[in-house]
Amino acid sequence: MGKSDDPITDAVLGESTYDRLRALRFGVFKQAIHRKLAWQSYLLLSLAALLPIAAALPDSTRMQYLTGELALASPKLAVLGFAGALLLVLTGLGHAGVAVRRLAREPNISEFEAEQLLAAENVCSTLGLGTATLAVAITHAGFALGFGGASAVASYVDVMGADPFAASNLPLSLGTIMVVSLLGAVVLQLLSAFVFVESLSNKYASVDW
């Protein structure tokens, strides 16, 4: 049967049990895994930019809240950023594992196994593109606050009662986040390309959605 202009219809009517069940399943993150891996790598790249962003903060913010060697600074925001990076890397590896298993099993994958893989993919997508994205957004919002100067940060602390630039006393520096995020982004981009190429060579797999 030839392909229509609607990739979801093709998935429902196609030979892949996995794609059919994925198309019929309710969910927010129903995109192809190679796309989700690419998105996760972009989020990691944004975290890798935290050190340059911190270096661009006004002098008043850096001198009052990020004293000492900037790459070694470990504000509370850095802990949140590291948690987001770790979640992105782990769920990205999970996404890749699901894709590899699914491609290896097509066209003989059973409905039960497809459901199990879809459940695993859904967990990775929810944590990686939901929870981790929220952590990344909050981290960047905190650094954006720093561009208002030390007075803006002080006003926030007075209202909220929490200092996002306070030292975390954990060995999770901005430099560490940059290295981990860069390496993670490269790995996930390579996995995204691998899954995409392997999907193209597998007539049972869709790369359209």
Automatic annotation (TrEMBL):
It comes from the Archaea. The keyword Transmembrane applies. The keyword Membrane applies. The chain crosses the membrane at residues 37-57, 77-100, 134-157, 177-197. Keywords: Membrane, Transmembrane, Transmembrane helix. This is Uncharacterized protein. It comes from Salinirubrum litoreum. The lineage of its organism: Archaea, Methanobacteriati, Methanobacteriota, Stenosarchaea group, Halobacteria.
